[in-house]
Amino acid sequence: MITLKISLIFLICIWSLDVSVCVFQNATDPPVAPVPDKPENSTGSPPAPGPVSSNEAGNSTGSPPAPGPVSSNEAENSTGSPPAPGPVSSNEPENSTGSPPAPGPVSSYKPHKFLISPAQPAGVPTIFAKQVDLKQQATYFNSLISQHKLDQMAIDLAKLTCEQRMQVKVEYTNAYSRSIEQDIDGKTKKTFMRLLYALIQPMPELMAATIDWSITQKQDFLYVSLICTTPADLLTQIANTYAAKNNKKLVDAIMQNMKDVDGQDFLSDIVNAVTGFESMVQTRPNNTISEDLIQTQVNYIPQAQGNCSEKDNPDLYKFMGGASFAQIAAVVKAFQQKTSLSAASQIRQFCNGILSEAYSRIVIFAEDPVSYWTTEVYNSMGYGKTIDRGLTVAVLYRSEIDLASIRDSFKTTYHNDLVDFIKSHCSETYEKVMENIVSGVQE
How far apart are CA 399 and CA 17, in angstroms? Predict the structure, then answer.
């Protein structure tokens, strides 16, 4: 009997805001600290859609324009014409091996949820763990790859949880002495390949790649969104993954690609805090609330133009960069009760550039994560073209947290069914995969 010993790598899941985020971690690393549930919406109703812009200094406060047609470059299914036999239709994909393998014994993996306050309602996900035989799944995917049916593979991968997809990758390598990535490399075009890679990447790796594209291509504010609203332990994994993949620190990329000095400093301080480097802000703690600090922190919200930077308003700077999201939500609620003003509106009015973008996103996310990500999903499709990277990371990241809640919020906020919106802005297999994840199709 041959014993295969895997000594360094094991799978763990970080439960952050009710999410299991799959990561690979060196066995010598310290255990990842738990992150609790997201804070309750203090306003009782979803806040207005968050800021969006196509450049760093853009105005992020305007009303969203009517959705335009999707760009054929970003949202099309780009499976192209692989070697015969070609890919099956995404509408009625034929399973070349007959019916999928019958479910086998379920993985022994059991996630843990860390609840800070039972009063804080959890969002509703669309993807749940189901019983699968990991070895049979690996064999099934190898068969699909061999027959160039990568569209069917993407559809079936999307039915699994992040944890299960990572486990199938391990079983695949064990069975065939090569990775799934090696076997699919070069067999389809870029947009569809991005989707496939997203489905077989640990979440920190996907988010690191998305940040890199966003910040280097200067296409949107995805990098601001992911750096500012990601819990500290997951952000640590993202920063470490970024460094390993790009041979440079995430902070270096921020400094090299951003022209806004105050924005550079703020995002760099957030990343430095979670990676152990000198920072003006503390590592963002778990969602605890210090009631005795609220009335003092209410005064940090800007009341005058430009009163936002670390130099001009260090208390606000440190509060936005290092307070728990629950604390921020409590302060924002107290500010509104005291002044009848919106903290996000005050920030947009009196802060400039990236600080306006970052602070307002933090506030809106802290108040209501579901409403925040509803806006992010809309922004990935509703501004003239579909940004597949933005939609992919939003849907996959939130699918095991609160995507069902986002789906309901989308209909309330934009008066449009999210599945129908995806159908009208995406195409073929990409559309089918996104539709299945949003709908929660797992059969």
Answer: 12
